[in-house]
From TrEMBL, chain A:
SMART domains, A to Z: CO_deh_flav_C
Sorted UniProt keywords: FAD, Flavoprotein, Oxidoreductase
Record lineage: Bacteria, Pseudomonadati, Pseudomonadota, Alphaproteobacteria, Hyphomicrobiales
Protein name: Carbon monoxide dehydrogenase
InterPro entries reported for this sequence: CO_DH_flav_C (IPR005107), CO_DH_flav_C_dom_sf (IPR036683), Diverse_Substr_Oxidored (IPR051312), FAD-bd_PCMH (IPR016166), FAD-bd_PCMH-like_sf (IPR036318), FAD-bd_PCMH_sub1 (IPR016167), FAD-bd_PCMH_sub2 (IPR016169), Mopterin_DH_FAD-bd (IPR002346)
Annotated FAD-binding PCMH-type domain residues: 1-170
TrEMBL record, chain B:
Phylogenetic placement of the source organism: Bacteria, Pseudomonadati, Pseudomonadota, Alphaproteobacteria, Hyphomicrobiales
Name listed for the protein in its UniProt record: Molybdopterin-dependent oxidoreductase
SUPFAM superfamilies (UniProt xref): CO dehydrogenase molybdoprotein N-domain-like (SSF54665), Molybdenum cofactor-binding domain (SSF56003)
SMART domains reported for this sequence: Ald_Xan_dh_C
Keywords, in A-Z order: Molybdenum, Oxidoreductase
InterPro entries reported for this sequence: Ald_Oxase/Xan_DH_a/b, Ald_Oxase/Xan_DH_a/b_sf, Ald_Oxase/xanthine_DH-like, AldOxase/xan_DH_MoCoBD1, AldOxase/xan_DH_MoCoBD2, AldOxase/xan_DH_Mopterin-bd_sf
Residue ranges constituting the Aldehyde oxidase/xanthine dehydrogenase a/b hammerhead domain according to the UniProt record: 20-140
Length: 268, 787
């Protein structure tokens, strides 16, 4: 790890101002990507702005038709939140599937979304649940937020403050883990909303999280696994590595989509 | 059996300190004035070093020194050695290329040691290492062992075609004759996947030099500190043997990877004198992946001949063994004498011929890893036996039974003489525990749920208790493989046992104490086991090859016999009886036929105060030592049965049942033995399903972290059904055979035999990852689709 200046602001305003005034600054949320990268000397920000002491980035609220989660809420807090479990059980289950207990007790929803790792789970949940990402400057629809691997709509110095998830009538997440890292080799989040079904896939795409319009259309007609018969995602859009090549990933998208629909339907 | 004697499931004495964070590992030792070493490693698999400019690093903050291979050469520090000479078929010695601790002119794998920075802090050392300017002339690399002899890359000048040796064992003519008269021949092509050992504690070293006494001390993560001292002094020449103290304190696992003498500890001892400061190096996990000696990495073609009665009459094996870029300490013995002599397995096979071509590649050195050669042999034989049974339409259990050796001793065609065993007894017990008779029912039930269920056997044997020194000497070993022990009885009757074995997870502090408690009749808490320090223990060959029970404890037993004999002499004086009338029983020395007796501790005190006998006639004190050299290998054997269920939609293999019935001879502590079996199976399952070191064509290690290298987790394993059969080993005083490697040896073929049974075809390699199994399941479905 290279030397760096460490900052610990107590408000979003202070954090933003620090970022504006500092050279080569990085925000530290859970640190589960940034810190290992720094330890391996693959990243060396001059300034590290720790968001951990900012109270306004915490909390989970349910208000009518949505659940809103503070950006610094840890995966374990989302997984065990009574509000989340009641309103969107699929989201709590997804959080429970991230990493291991250590990761879940440090990693945060805001950090995961801002990083947009192509194998992370939260981007799929955001897309399928039609979430709104709230920052210190604006509100961005999930559809506009994720822009390719490790790329988002966030501007330099912009801070995610919370994420608002509309409550679907039915939803589920089916994850096929990378056997080694426990990241999603393929993760499919399906959610049935009043205006239709959304299907989002993480882990598989060569350009990060994506939706599958053919599946959404079919499931909007009939929310059953069999509705997906004959629908395949193209292999040329799939990621390929030693754990899973494009053909296997494309196949798994179909399998996981069916399992997600089955699980959502079983929940009733 | 007493509560703490042989056979008792005594809880591990050492665990209190381990689970409460009180263990002391090498990295816990911080010496006054300590500096830190960081190794600059090669980013290239194969390159000429045109120049190294250490100047910019030397002026970085905190830098004490920067050394390269030239500095070691200037001090006449020798290269690392391989301690087992193998001769090729034509009689020529193996081609051992130079193995300098810091590269001299060339790097040969990614992670090879280019230079070392010694600095006040580790961060400063790392900063300075980045400032070293190395001018590389990158060469083509060879990675695939099967292509090594044809590659354009030449790893060592001494071997133009990258061959280390072409070795063979067995009788070629007899094997050919057997194949000529065979009714059926089964062939198989296998890859034994390359593994990274990954003990939980990475390697570490602290070197220290005392200019006042000219003494060196090395704290190191070693399974055999005396061997490390011998090699560092006699061969590498870092320090004279009597001036070098090697301490291997608590060590957090080794699995073989900490047997070897590496560049890092060599440099730490040497540099400590150069910079007049203690020098510490602790491997990080990435360095461990890159530079710990890896395991396995064989490519094998094998054939089995059977006659018209379904009896195995011949076996031919050809293996290419990847030894990596350099010959590690015992690497040459692994694919030769630890491999081919096990190819007869539990079977009466009259003719066996095995050829092994060992090759250099631009990858990390490959050496012994839990099982070391024996898992590779067992994988070849047990996959081939299973496939032969299938091709002959025979039940795999009964095919094995028909071919089992039943008469002992049994001399195999591959130099081993098995002393004892009852293979059918283990098979019967395993079949019962596995509920084999109802397997078809379970398979149908799985099929109803769309799942593929399979069952696989592994009827393994291993040669442990290594080893008779004369025998291994005749085969090329550079050392003897006896063990030593010293039993020091204190005047208060408590006992210290100094052993040349080394515990790095095995529980010796408990099991060795159980032996003492059993023999001397004293409470287990009156016994201390001392190991891992060359200043305390006179000599020892260390712990590997499941040898510490069979060899290390036999040395202790021998020393205990001497203590009891001496105690009888003392007791004769004190109890005023003739020595021949003294009996030692239940911890008391007594006069036969009388009620006169004294406790062991009382006689110990008498031995030290020497009031009741003439110190001229009988030496005072009670301390005895012994060296025990085995007369034969030991032959643990057993039957493991694995039952899997495959989800053909995803390729996920779930192990539903695991049955292990092992014959380890006499067992000291059944709880610890069962733990060894569990851990071994977990590692074997890791190899079969999850683990595999992958280099790309340029020689970069793709699986250089736990993100890509998959270790087994508890969730990957079922609860194991463990059973035992016992045929005591006749060749050592305790009847012990050894248990440390059995699971890792037995497991891989059991898993793959189960998967291939489920799939209905043989085309799957290790690791059988979900992707590989899914693809294989697709292939299995195709003929059905055509129907």
């Amino acid at each position: 790890m290279y030397a760096f200046e460490y900052h610990r602001p107590t408000s979003v305003k202070e954090a933003a101002s620090l970022a504006g005034g500092a050279e080569d600054a990085k925000f530290l949320a859970g640190g589960h990507t940034l810190l290992p990268t720094m330890k391996l000397r693959l990243a060396g920000p001059a300034n590290l702005i720790d968001l951990g002491q900012i109270a306004e980035l915490r909390g989970i609220e349910r208000s009518g038709s949505a659940v809103t989660i503070g950006a610094m809420m840890k995966h374990a807090e989302v997984a065990t939140s009574a509000e989340v479990k009641e309103a969107i059980p699929a989201l709590a289950e997804m959080a429970e599937l991230i990493g291991d207990p250590h990761v879940r007790n440090r990693g945060t929803i805001g950090g995961s979304i801002a990083n947009n790792d192509p194998s992370a789970d939260y981007p799929a949940a955001c897309l399928a649940l039609n979430a709104t990402i709230v920052t210190n400057q604006r509100k961005v629809a999930a559809d506009d937020f994720f822009q390719g691997i490790f790329t988002t709509a966030l501007e330099e110095g912009e801070i995610i403050t919370r994420v608002s998830f509309p409550i679907p009538s039915q939803a589920a997440y089916a994850k096929f883990r990378n056997p080694a890292s426990r990241y999603a080799l393929v993760g499919v989040f399906v959610a049935k909303h009043a205006d239709g079904v959304r299907v989002a896939v993480t882990g598989a795409g060569s350009n990060g999280v994506f939706r599958v319009p053919e599946m959404e259309k079919a499931l909007s007609g009939s929310f059953t696994p069999d509705a997906l018969n004959g629908i395949a995602v193209p292999q040329d859009r799939m990621n390929s590595d030693i754990h899973a090549d494009a053909a296997y990933r494309a196949h798994l998208v179909g399998v996981m989509a069916r399992r997600a629909v089955q699980a959502a339907a079983a929940r009733g | 059996m007493t509560a703490t004697g042989i056979g008792a499931p005594v809880r591990r004495k050492e665990d209190q300190r381990f689970v409460t964070g009180q263990g002391r590992y090498v990295d816990d030792f911080n010496r006054p004035g300590q500096a830190y070493a960081y190794f600059l490693r090669s980013p290239h698999a194969h390159a000429i070093i045109r120049s190294i400019d250490t100047g910019p690093a030397m002026i970085m903050p905190g830098v004490i020194a920067v050394f390269t291979g030239d500095d070691l050469a200037a001090d006449k520090i020798g290269g690392l050695i391989c301690g087992w000479m193998i001769h090729s078929k034509d009689g020529s010695p193996m081609k051992a290329g130079p193995h300098p601790a810091l590269a001299q002119g060339k790097v040969r794998y990614v992670g090879d040691h280019v230079a070392v920075v010694i600095a006040e802090t580790l961060a400063q050392a790392k900063d300075a290492a980045e400032a070293i300017v190395v001018d590389y002339d990158v060469l083509p690399a060879v990675v695939d062992p099967a292509q090594a002899t044809k590659a354009s890359a030449q790893v060592h000048d001494v071997s133009p075609d990258n061959t280390v040796f072409n070795w063979h064992l067995g009788n070629k003519d007899e094997a050919e004759a057997a194949f000529a008269r065979a009714k059926h021949i089964t062939t198989i092509d296998l890859v034994n996947n390359r593994l990274v050992p990954n003990p939980i504690e990475p390697r570490a070293a602290v070197g220290e030099y005392d200019p006042g006494t000219d003494n060196y001390t090395l704290y190191t993560t070693s399974q055999n500190p005396h061997v490390a001292r011998l090699v560092l002094s006699a061969f590498i020449g870092v320090a004279p043997e009597h001036k070098l103290r090697v301490i291997a304190p608590d060590v957090g696992g080794g699995f073989g990877s900490k047997i070897f003498i590496y560049a890092e500890e060599t440099v730490c001892v040497w540099a400590a004198k150069k910079v007049k400061r203690p020098v510490k190096w602790t491997s990080d996990r990435t360095e461990a992946f890159l530079s710990d000696a890896h395991g396995r990495d064989h490519v094998t073609h094998a054939e089995m001949a059977t006659d018209e009665n379904g009896r195995i009459i011949g076996l031919r094996v050809h293996t290419v063994a990847n030894l990596g870029a350099y010959l590690s300490t015992f690497s040459s013995s692994v694919p030769t004498y630890l491999y081919a002599p096990l190819l007869s397995g539990q079977y009466d096979i009259p003719a066996i011929y095995c050829e092994v071509d060992a090759v250099y590649t631009n990858t990390a050195p490959v050496d012994a890893y839990r099982g070391a050669g024996r898992p590779e042999a067992t994988y070849v034989l047990e996959r081939l036996v299973e496939k032969t049974a299938r091709e002959l339409g025979q039940d795999p259990a009964e095919f094995r039974r028909k071919n089992y050796i039943t008469q002992f001793p049994h001399a195999t065609p591959v130099i081993m003489t098995y002393d004892t065993g009852d293979y059918a007894a283990s098979l019967d017990k395993a079949l019962e525990l596995a509920d084999y008779k109802n397997f078809q029912q379970r398979k149908q039930e799985s099929a109803r749920r769309g799942k593929l269920r399979g069952i696989g056997f592994s009827s393994y044997i291993e040669a442990c208790g290594i080893a008779p020194s004369q025998a291994v000497g005749s085969l090329g070993a550079g050392v003897g493989l006896w063990e030593s022990a010293e039993v020091r009885v204190n005047p208060t009757g408590s006992v210290e046992v100094l052993t040349g074995s080394h515990s790095h997870g095995q529980g010796h502090e408990t099991t060795f104490a159980q032996l003492v408690s059993d023999r001397l009749g004293i409470p287990i808490d009156q016994v201390s086991i001392v190991h891992g320090d060359t200043d305390k223990v006179q000599f020892g060959m260390g712990t590997y090859g499941s040898r510490s029970g069979a060899v290390g404890m036999s040395a202790i037993a021998k020393a205990l016999d001497k203590v009891i004999a001496k105690g009888k002499k003392v007791a004769a004086h004190v109890l005023e009886a003739s020595e021949g009338d003294i009996e030692f029983k239940d911890g008391r020395f007594g006069v036969a036929g009388t009620d006169r007796s004294m406790a062991f501790g009382e006689i110990a005190l008498q031995a030290y105060i020497a009031h009741k006998f003439s110190g001229q006639d009988l030496e005072p004190g009670l301390k005895e030592g012994a060296f025990y050299d085995p007369t034969n290998f030991t032959f643990p054997a057993g039957v493991h049965i694995c039952e899997v269920e495959i989800d053909p939609d995803t390729g996920v293999t779930k192990i539903e049942r695991w049955t292990a019935v092992d014959d380890f001879g006499v067992i000291i502590n059944p709880m610890i033995v069962e733990g060894q079996v569990h851990g071994g199976i977990a590692q074997g399952v890791g190899q079969a399903l999850l683990e595999g070191a992958v280099y790309d064509q340029s020689g970069q290690l793709i699986t250089a972290s736990f993100n890509d290298y998959c270790m087994p987790r508890a969730i990957d394993l079922p609860s194991f059904q463990v059973g035992m059969t016992v045929t005591p080993c006749p060749s050592n005083p305790l009847g012990i055979k050894g248990c440390g490697e059995a699971g890792a040896i037995a497991a891989p073929p059991a898993v793959i035999n189960a998967i291939t049974d489920a799939l209905g075809h043989e085309d799957i390699a290790m690791p059988a990852t979900p992707q590989a199994v899914w693809r294989a399941a697709q292939k299995a479905r195709m003929p059905m689709a055509a129907e």
